[in-house]
Write a structure and sequence with these properties.
- It is a single chain.
- This protein is α/β, with parallel strands linked by helices and 121 residues long.
- It has 2 domains: 36 residues; 78 residues, Cupredoxins -  blue copper proteins (Immunoglobulin-like, Sandwich).
- It has 1 helix and 8 strands.
- Strand 1 and strand 2 form a beta hairpin.
- The longest helix has 35 residues.
- The N and C termini lie far apart (71 Å).
């Protein structure tokens, strides 16, 4: 009977450690995800060779600001040639006001696999 009690206590303790360990392991990822979101909803962050968020929906008349957080230069070029930034070094910014509704696709001409989309309503 005593060995059954010891086994049950050990099993219960192991289950608690597993549950709390999994909860603690997922908590930092949640904090990192929240910290990675742009502070301003009208901002696109350029980081890790990507535009974040990749798609942004805004009302007409919204000014969007792109900020290069990467260690390498990037630019922002619309596929329909409506806007184009100069080459942005680390922490440099480019802004554009979207006056007309529509879908605006853009990319980095230095790294053409980097693409993004602004949807103006």
């Amino acid at each position: 009977m005593r060995s059954l009690l010891v086994f049950s206590t050990v099993t219960f303790s192991a289950m608690l450690l597993l549950i709390f360990g999994l909860a603690a392991a997922s908590y930092p990822r949640l904090a990192v995800t929240l910290a990675d979101e742009p502070a301003n909803k009208n901002e696109v962050k350029i980081d890790n060779f990507s535009f974040q968020p990749a798609t942004l929906m805004v009302p007409a008349g919204t000014k969007i600001t792109w900020t290069n957080r990467d260690d390498v230069p990037h630019n922002v070029i619309s596929t329909d040639k409506k806007f184009a930034s100069p080459v942005l070094d680390t922490d440099e910014q480019f802004s554009y006001e979207f006056k007309d509704p529509g879908t605006y696709l853009y990319y980095c001409s230095i790294h053409p696999k980097m693409t993004g989309k602004i949807v103006v309503q």
